[in-house]
Amino acid sequence: MRTVTRKRSTAGRILRTVRQSVAFLYRYVRVLRYRPVGLLWMLGFPAAFYLITIATFIDFSAIPASYHGAVRATTALSYGIFGAVLVSLTTVSGGLVSDLEADRTGVYRSIGVSPAADLAGRVGSALCIAAVSVLVVIGVSLLTGATYTISVTAVPIVVVAFIGSVLPWIVIAYVVAISTKSKRYATLIAVSLALVSYFATGFNGTVPATFTADPAWLNVLPNTLSTRILIANTVAISDAAGAGLAPPALPTDWTAVGILVGYASVAVGILHAIGIKRLYNGRIGE
Known about the structure:
transmembrane; membrane; transmembrane helix; 73% helix; single chain
């Protein structure tokens, strides 16, 4: 009898946490409607940057016509991941700082809200907004002639690559928010980190020639690895070197996916430590 009661109690807690997670996700997405200008800038900036790049910075006359669609697609994915990083950093850090300033975590503790639900809702909302950012750039790129090729078997890899590209930056957003406790500085630092990471790593690994370190690192660093995995699984490129994507060769084996899963796993562990144990039990913000 005790075993049955315990199982029901556990199931009830899980169901309650899931419901609270969905409620938090909805709250964190809904609050963005009060910042329409900022949201429009975050979603539109990568797409605008993409249009400027293909219009002024890429000399398509020097590229074989058969590569034009692929080059546009790789450029779009590069800016798409940049946008995902940008929105996840700014929305999570800005929202968390606001909650810390209002001591909402203290309120949540007092009414018995699950810390895991708060964390899941915040991470889930960041992933949703980041996905919209990527899709906006891809949508714009399709209008300019970008070509994508994706198989059913590649869909799980694409999903893992996307999640793996965002989770590490959510960790950084938490650290920035807790360290600065200032929305202004948190946003400034977040945007600066997104820009520096993008340009310093050869436009998220899509232009290896501009990367000053060993090119092999482009298949290791989280933001470049995820972008290059996405390209390898969504863009048909017979000659990566001819398209300016190599060396190194695009990551097509499961080792690369495993590395990205490892990054995501570490990120989840750190988020658990910061977002639950430290943020709630550590009484940050009080």
